């Protein structure tokens, strides 16, 4: 017994940081512009302006990369050069440029949105350098702007996967894209968002975000909570994935049927942000290779088309005020990796996204396009109208 305990004590325990994968989607930094250089009163010289601090969006970066590259979370641009007899105008201080991922919203310490960086090479000034010393400042260089900023990452993707743990979101991502997510038959396999890309033969690309599974109470930041839900806000299509057999997080929780799972997901999203339910949505009924799956699907499919009728029969605490409408209801066994089935799935997703983009374009430019068309028609009619003598 003593020998056995000695052997156990020899096993090296992993530190906490190796027992979990850390995902950073928020980062706080203190930024300060450079101080302006001193002026030279004798010759009326002007000091150099202090450097500015900029954020620049770059594809392929994560906030973890940003943290590793920064030596400190306090960033200061260089000071401007002093005016001298040899250089009446001081040299401006060098700017400080911080590369960050695309899809970041930047807030100041008061929660005011300073800007958002969504595209490659988009740039945002977060701390302006101080003015160089001159007659108006008594030839003293002014300090640069100083503030604390919060970077809030929200993934930009065409499709956001929504579902409870172990529903098959990672399996879907692996089946349709080039991503290689961790897949296992237990809840919370995905602990950090992953982006995959669906490639088509005509070079069309659709990005998919595999996000950590929701649990009841996610809107109150329970479980992954807001870390998950905020990433859904920037997607164009919500893709619900549910298990045909329902869901049970653990023996401590009551088992939920497939329909109850859909209603609960609807409720969690509504409590977080009701506007998300206005987005186009598709539902995939997964694990159709399991026992009695076909019979369950025949029973629930008509109800999914008229989900509002079913919601009224649910317990009051489960009922959402706004019931989601699904553009399509698809049933598959994602684990089977049937290539024909997967290709059909990819094409249906593409058609729904294209339809959404078309509706959005008409809603945005419809009136202006109609007026341009009418004006063009009138011009043509005037040109072809014969002159009466």
Low-confidence stretches: 10-21, 180-191, 215-226, 384-389
Q: Which second-level CATH architecture of the largest domain applies?
A: 3-Layer(aba) Sandwich
Helix content: 25-40%
The radius of gyration over CA amounts to 29 Å
- State mean pLDDT (0 to 100 scale): 80
Q: What is the count of distinct domains?
A: 2
Per the CATH scheme, the topology name of the largest domain is Rossmann fold
Main sheet overview? 6 strands, mixed
> What are the secondary-structure elements, in order, as H or E?
HHEEHEEEEEEEHEEHEHEHHEH
Distance between the termini: 120 Å
The total count of helices amounts to 9
The first-level CATH class name of the largest domain: Alpha Beta
Strand residue content: 15-25%
CATH superfamily assignment of the largest domain?
Answer: P-loop containing nucleotide triphosphate hydrolases
Oligomer: single chain
- What strand order characterises the main sheet? 10-11-9-12-13-14
Number of strands: 14
Gross morphology is elongated
Structural class: alpha/beta
Can you describe this structure?
- The chain has 389 residues and is α/β, with parallel strands linked by helices.
- It folds into two domains: 132 residues, Spo0b-associated Gtp-binding Protein, Chain: A, CATH 2.70.210; 200 residues, P-loop containing nucleotide triphosphate hydrolases (Rossmann fold, 3-Layer(aba) Sandwich).
- 29% of the residues lie in helices and 20% in strands.
- It has a six-stranded mixed β-sheet, with helices on both faces. A five-stranded mixed β-sheet has the order 3-1-8-5-6, with no helix packed on it.
- Strand 5 and strand 6 form a beta hairpin.
- The longest helix has 45 residues.
- The protein is elongated, with a radius of gyration of 29 Å.
- The C terminus is likely disordered.
